[in-house]
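note to self — DONT lose this again. spent like an hour looking for the file last time. sequence + predicted structure for the chain T wanted, 226 res
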Amino acid sequence: MSLKSRIILQCVAAFVVAFGLLFLPAWTLDFWEAWVYLGIVFIPMVVFSVYYYKHDPVLVERRMQFREKVKEQKWIMRAGTLISLIALVIPSLDHRFGWTRQLFGAVPLRVNIVAQVLALTGYLVTMWVIHVNRFAARTIRVEKGQQVISTGPYRVVRHPLYAGGVVMWLASAPALGSYVALPFFALLIPIFVARLLSEEKVLRQELPGYAEYCEGTRYRLVPYIW
């Protein structure tokens, strides 16, 4: 199958899964927060895929690899996938049964909008990271010719890709109109932490200059905190 066909298939499959998780449990299409959320995720995804398919197909190919070689990473990613799927279902059920409205009152529109902006910002940060570091694969590995990146977002924290992901996922609950879902999305934070700690072990051992980079860039995920 050609790269173009795989990109289309992957985007369509991801949209179908996300659509099902957000709308089937809600049992309605009258869920405007979910429509906005789909736009936040998939419009940049399509633009990113089209642009880099034309300008850097090797990067797209790299981002389409999902098979981890490190055993502990396989378990981390399985846990992360399961938690993220469950987390996306909770706002849909919340929309249907009104748990947030009953417990806390409806999420104010201004909170919805701010959360949606934060979710989009977090997602765009991940796109920026991938643009700066063309070796930012979905799997943890060191490739021939790979170099340490210390510019752009890598000047702030060592793992800006995960930092953007944390912002996006934490904002997802209120962006989808649910406070009840927030603890489920927060469960992804330990997944990010476990993944980046494991990744650092590999990079320190296999990527020349990474240990020195860590000495110069103190914070892993959150500036001035950790």
